[in-house]
Amino acid sequence: MKIIFLGTPEFAVAPLKALASSRHEVVAVVSQPDRAKDRKGRLLPTPVRAYAEEIGIPVYQFEKIRADGIDVLKRLRPDIMVTAAYGQILSREILEIAPYGVINVHASLLPKLRGSAPVQWAIINGDRDTGITIMQTDVGVDSGDILAVRCVSIAKDETSGELLARLSCIGAELLLNTLDKIEDGTVNAEPQDESKATRCRMLTKADGHLDFCETKEKIVCRCLGVTPSPGAFAYLGGETIKIGRVSAVDGDFGECGTVKTLDGKIIVACADGGIAIEKLQLPGAKMLSAREFLNGRSLKDGARLS
Questions:
Q1: Would you state the pLDDT for residue 263?
Q2: pLDDT tens-digit readout, 189-205
């Protein structure tokens, strides 16, 4: 089949690689406009654009695809379009361009966690499993018929970045299987149960702020869910401390947020015990282990993280 692929972040690269190495023809790639910059202020290509250009696939980047992309997409005459974390809502006119419509690689078990950042919120919420859903895109937000599902267990210490990388590869495999079934007419489309639908929003920097008055389990889940982006942090006096990784510790360590150092460990009291900060970073410095941090800086017992 002739395919137009729409995707932007690293999560979408594995599905694109799978399509590019399959018997299908990727006639074009559409990615969001470049927005990330390097330290010199130069725009960096999106991961999908970078890979597409590396293998010689034409790339289009529309500020508003609903206004600027329709004529281009029609001229390409695709059999089907595939999206994976593209980042823009498609109009009905776009959805009807290809004979087989548009299918989407979504990183949750729909109808649970429709919308942005489903992997991050699954971890923050303490879910024990998630997965990949291949769905037929409609005019709603992740509300189309389900074509294929693959359930995945979330490892206890898995960050959102690690889980996204794993799901990306699983999504690539499931995508190819689904395209085969679409072609031979054996795909089974099932409507979503709207009564079970939940939504999730894009993460903001504020979502990385750790609240030490929560339970240790919730703090660990939040830290894992916001790693690597937007990143976990807390305040020590007037300084913002980036938190790399934490683990739960049993015991009574005093009032929430109170710091105790013990055998090279930094333990912070929380609602039902403590959190051991394993890695942390001061402004303008590099990420250090707790022991390295304490070797270079005095941190008194009784200090407060907020």
A1: 86
A2: 999 999 999 999 999 99
* Residue pLDDT, tens place only, 125-158: 999 999 999 999 999 899 999 999 999 999 999 9
Q: What angle do CA 263, 264, 268 make, to 5 degrees?
A: 95
- Collect the ranges in the chain with pLDDT lower than 50: none
Q: Cα Rg for the chain, rounded, in angstroms? A: 22
